[in-house]
Design goal:
The protein has ten helices and eleven strands. With 297 residues, it is α/β, with parallel strands linked by helices. Strands 8-7-6-9-10-11 form a six-stranded parallel beta sheet, sandwiched between helices. The protein has a five-stranded mixed beta sheet with strand order 2-1-3-4-5, with helices on one face. α8 links the parallel β10 and β11.
Length: 297
C-alpha cells in the first residue's frame, strides 16, 4: 500500500518493542479490508512516556497499542477510560484518538481481556465451575484474574511477592465478591503446594509471567513435576517459543496446553475494530493467525 498524506498512522509503544509482531498483523488486516493506514512500533525510553503520548497526539497519530512496561503507567496521560472494568483492572493496552472537539488526547481500553476471552472460547475451554490458578500478579496477571473471577468457581492468584497478590485479590474481591464470599485467594508462589495437598482437583492454570520467554526457554515458573499432575489445562501467555517448558510439563502429565498467540491475535483484532469502526471477518482472522504461526514456529 502506498503511503501518502491521507494515510492514517497507528502504532505500538513499549520498551523493548523490537520483537513485536503487531505491524505484521495490523498490516495484513488493513490490506484485506482496503484501509489506508500504517502501523509503526515506537520504542519509548524510560521517563519519556508522557512526552510520547503528547507527541503522538501532536503528530495526529490515530491510535496506539501499549505493551510492557507502560500498560498501567500510561493511564494518567489519557483523557478518559470509558469502560468501568478497564478502570477496575488499572491497565490499558489500546488507545483510541479522542474525537471530542474539546479534548486533545487518547481514550484507553483493555483488549487484552477481551482477546484472552475470545482465545479461550475459540479453544473450547469454559471457566464456569472451574478452579483456576493464575501465576503472576503483574499487569497481565491482574487483568486475567479479573476476567477469571467473573466466571470461574474460584481463582487462586500466586505471585513471588505475596503482598502484591494480596493487594490485587483484595481489590477484586471488593468489587466482584459474590454473596459475601471472596472470588480470589492470594498465595505466595512458593506456597503452591497448599493447593495440592489432599486435593483431587485438576486446575486450569494461566501462566502470566515472563518466565520462559526466549531466549530463556528452559525456565519455568514452578519447577516441580508434582504440580503439573494437577493441571488439566494450561495457558502460557508467552508465544515465543511456540511451546514453552510450562506447556511441555502440562502435556507430559496428560493436560492440554495453549500458548498466547491467539490472545495476541484477538486483542489486536479488537483494537483494530475500535480504531476503524469495522468488523474483521473470520476468514481474515484465520489467514492472519496462519501467518503469525508461520513466523513463530
Amino acid at each position: 500500500m502506498q503511503v501518502n498524506g491521507k494515510t492514517k498512522v497507528y502504532g505500538i509503544i513499549g520498551n523493548p518493542i523490537e520483537h513485536t509482531m503487531s505491524p505484521l498483523m495490523h498490516g495484513m488486516i488493513a490490506d484485506a479490508l482496503g484501509i489506508d493506514m500504517v502501523y509503526v512500533p515506537f520504542h519509548v525510553a524510560q521517563g519519556q512516556l508522557e512526552a510520547a503520548i503528547k507527541g503522538a497526539c501532536a503528530l495526529n497519530i490515530q491510535g496506539m497499542n501499549v505493551t510492557v512496561p507502560y500498560k498501567s503507567a500510561v493511564i494518567p496521560y489519557l483523557t478518559d477510560i470509558p469502560v468501568a472494568r478497564t478502570k477496575e483492572i488499572g491497565a490499558v493496552n489500546t488507545l483510541v484518538r479522542d474525537a471530542r472537539d474539546d479534548r486533545q488526547g487518547f481514550i484507553g481500553y483493555n483488549t487484552d481481556l477481551s482477546g484472552l476471552w475470545r482465545a479461550i472460547q475459540s479453544d473450547g475451554v469454559s471457566l464456569g465451575d472451574e478452579e483456576v490458578i493464575v501465576l503472576g500478579a503483574g499487569g497481565v496477571g491482574r487483568a486475567v484474574a479479573y476476567m477469571c473471577a467473573g466466571s470461574a468457581k474460584k481463582v487462586y492468584l500466586l505471585n513471588r511477592d505475596r503482598a502484591k497478590a494480596d493487594a490485587v485479590a483484595l481489590e477484586i474481591n471488593s468489587k466482584l465478591g459474590r454473596y459475601g464470599q471472596d472470588c480470589v485467594s492470594a498465595l505466595a508462589l512458593c506456597d503452591y503446594r497448599n493447593l495440592l495437598t489432599g486435593s483431587e482437583n485438576r486446575y486450569i492454570v494461566l501462566q502470566c509471567t515472563s518466565v520462559g520467554l526466549a531466549p530463556n526457554v528452559d525456565d519455568v515458573v514452578i519447577d516441580d513435576g508434582d504440580f503439573y499432575h494437577y493441571v488439566k489445562c494450561g495457558y502460557d501467555l508467552i508465544y515465543t517459543p511456540w511451546e514453552t517448558t510450562f506447556m511441555k510439563r502440562v502435556k507430559s502429565n496428560g493436560g492440554v496446553a495453549y500458548n498466547g498467540l491467539k490472545m495476541l491475535l484477538y486483542q489486536g483484532i479488537d483494537a483494530f475494530e475500535l480504531w476503524n469502526g469495522c468488523k474483521v471477518t473470520k476468514d481474515i482472522v484465520d489467514k492472519v493467525y496462519q501467518k503469525l504461526c508461520e513466523k513463530v514456529r
